[in-house]
Amino acid sequence: MADRALESAIAAQDDLRAAQSELGDAQDWVSRAGEEAERLQDEGESSAAEPPDEQAVRDAMRDHQAAEAAAGAAQSRVDAAEQRLAAARELAGQARELREEAARECARDIDAASDAGIQNRSWWEDAVNWVTENWDTFVDVCKLVVAVLGIVVMIIGGPLAWIVLAAALVVLADTLIKYAQGRASLFDVAFPALDCIPGMKGLTTLGGLAVGMRALARGGLREMANGLRRSADDVLPPGRQTGGEIRSARNTNDFDSAWADEVYDSIRATDDVDTIAANVAEYGFTRDDIAQIKSHVFEEEHLLDSYVAYGEPAEMARFQSNPRMAEAWLRLREGNPHPEDITLLRHELYESNYMRDTGNPSYSEAHRAAIDAGLAWDGEAPSRDGIGFRRR
Fold first, then answer.
1. Which ranges of the sequence are coiled-coil (predicted)?
2. What's the whole-model pTM score?
3. Taking the CB of residue 382, how many other CB atoms lie within 10 A of it?
4. Cα(310)–Cα(209) distance, integer angstroms
5. What is the pLDDT of residues 27-55, one digit of tens each?
C-alpha cells in the first residue's frame, strides 16, 4: 500500500505541475484576448475614431471566449490533480497507520514469546560458542598453562593443580580427536595422558627437573630456568630457525622440511623477483624490496643464535627451510597471496633492514626487533583458512 501511495503521489504531483503550467498559459491568453476585445469596444464607442472592422470584433470575441474555455479546462485539470494528490496523501497516511499497527503487534508478539520462555542466550552459551570458534587458540593456551604452571605446581602445589589438570584434559581431548582422525600417533597421546595423572606432570623431563632443582640451590630461579631449558634437548630437538618463525617440528606431517628443502632450491633457481614485485606492488613493495627479501630469506647467511641458551652453538648459515614460508612464496609468485603472506614480506624486509642498519647479523635480535615493531607473522593463518600446512 505504501508503494502504491508513493507512486500515486508522484504521478499526481507531476500532473498537478503540468496542469498549473497550462492554467498559467490559459490565463495569459484570457488576459490578452480580453484586452484586445476591450480595445476594439472602446474604438467602436469613440466618435472621433474610425469604427473597427466588424469581423475583427467578432474574431476578438471568439478568441476571448476560447481563452476563457481553455482556462476553465486547465483549472479543471488542476482541481483533478489536486484531488488525486490529496487521495495519495490519504493513502500514505493509511499505510503509515497500518505499519505502526503492525509494529505494535510485532512488539506484543515478541513480548509474549519472551514471557513464554524464549530468552536471550546466557553468558555460558556465548562462552561455549567462543571456544568452539577459537578451539585451536584455546588448545594452545591450555598447552602453555600445562607447560608453565605444571612446573610451578610440582614445586609449590596448591589449588593451581586443578587448573593444570583442567588444561591437561583439554589438551588430551584435542589429541584424542586428532588421533581418531589419523592426525596424531599413540606416542602423541601418551604425553597429554601422563599430564592428567596427579603427580605425573613433568615425568618426561624428570631428569631435567632434577638438574633444575640442583641449579636452584646454586643460583636461584634464573639458573633453574636455564637448566630446565637446557634439559629440553633430551626430549625435543632444537627448533628450526627459518626467518619468519622459530619452532620445533613434532613429526614429518607437522613440518615437512624435506619438501621445503626442494622448494627452496627451486626458488633459488627461479628468476621470479619481477613477477612477485608486480603482484604485490599495490601493497607498497618495490622490485628492490622483493629482491632484498628473497636474498635475505633464501640466499644470505645469518648468525643463527636463537638456541645458544639451550646449548646449541650459534653458526653463520642460511635460514632453514620452512614449508609454510615456501608455500607463501609460491602464492606470492602466483598472484593470490594470503594477507599473512604480505605480513611475512614486511617481517623479512624489516629483519633485513635491521641487520643492514645495525651491522649485526644476529637473527634472534633481528627477529625480536621485527616482532616488537608489530610484524609478527602468523604462519598457520592460511591453514586455518583451508590452505597450506597445519600444525598437528
1. 64-108
2. 0.42
3. 21
4. 15
5. 676 677 666 666 666 665 555 556 555 66
